[in-house]
Amino acid sequence: MKSFRNFNKSFVFLCLFLFTFAWSSLIASESVKIKQTGTVIHHKNHMTSEQAVQAPLSTLYNIQGTPKTFPVLGKWNLLVYWSLFCQSCIEEMPMIQEGLKEFENDNLTAYFISIDTVRMQKALVNFVRRRDFNHEILLEEVTPYGYLTAGQWNVTMTPTFFLVSPSGEIAFRHEGPINILELFETIRYSLKGGAQ
Q1: 15-30 tens-digit pLDDT
Q2: Does residue 140 sit in helix, strand or coil?
Q3: Which residues on adjacent β-strands are paired with residue 162?
Q4: Low-confidence residues of the chain, pLDDT below 70?
Q5: CA 196, 193, 74: angle at the middle one, nearest 5?
Q6: Beta carbons within 10 angstroms of residue 21's beta carbon
C-alpha cells in the first residue's frame, strides 16, 4: 500500500510538471506570435508618421518618493518596464546602464519602471545601491483595474522597452529579452534623425 501511495505522489508530481511545461511552452509560442505580427519595431523599420502612436503622459513616484512625469517632451525617452523577479531584466540592466554612458551628452532620458510597486521599495533601493545603478527607477502603482501606467502603455510582460521621440511618439517598442547591441543601434539611429 505504501508503494502505491508513493507511486500516486510521483504520478501527480509528474502530471503537474508536464502541465507546467506545456503551459510555459504555450505562453512562449504566443510571445513569438506577438513578435511576428509586428510588435517589434527595429531601427530599420521604425514606425512611419502614419503608424506612429502618441505616447501617454504618465506620472509615477521614484524610489525616493518624488513624482516624475514621463515621457519628457523635447527629449528622446527610453522606458524600460522591468521587475526584480524577471531574470533577463536583472541580467540586462547593468549592460543597459553601461551602454547609456555613450548618450550622456545627448538628448536622451532613461526611466526604469519597476512593476514591483511600493511594496518592494526597500528591495529596489538595495538593488540600486548594490549595483551602483544611477538611472531613474520609478515605482508602478496598482489600481483596482490593474497597473496604472503599464495599462496605459499596453505592457503585457517584462522587460518591455519603448523609445519615445521628442514629439512624444512611440518610435520603438520591444517585448521580452532584447539584444543589447541592437537596442543601442536603434537609439543611435533615432538620435541621428533616422526616426522623427
Answers
A1: 544 444 444 443 343 3
A2: coil
A3: 79, 173
A4: 1-51, 194-196
A5: 55
A6: 10
User: What are residue 38's DSSP bridge partners?
Assistant: none
Q: Which DSSP helix (H) or strand (E) runs through 143?
A: strand 142-143
Could you tell me if 113 and 153 are in contact, meaning their C-beta atoms sit under 8 angstroms apart?
no
Q: Which CATH number fits domain 41-194: 3.40.190.10, 3.30.40.230, 3.40.30.10, 3.40.50.1820?
A: 3.40.30.10
Q: Are 95 and 180 in contact (CB under 8 A)?
A: yes
Can you spell out the DSSP letters for 82-123?
A: E-TT-HHHHHHHHHHHHHHGGGTTSSEEEEEEETT-GGGHHH
Here the cell at position 63 is: 524610489
- The x, y and z cell numbers of residue 120, run together, are 518592494
Strands 146-147 and 108-114: unpaired
pTM: 0.73
Domain ranges within the chain, ordered by starting residue: 1-39, 41-194
Q: Where are the alpha helices (DSSP H) in the chain?
A: 2-34, 87-100, 121-130, 148-152, 180-189
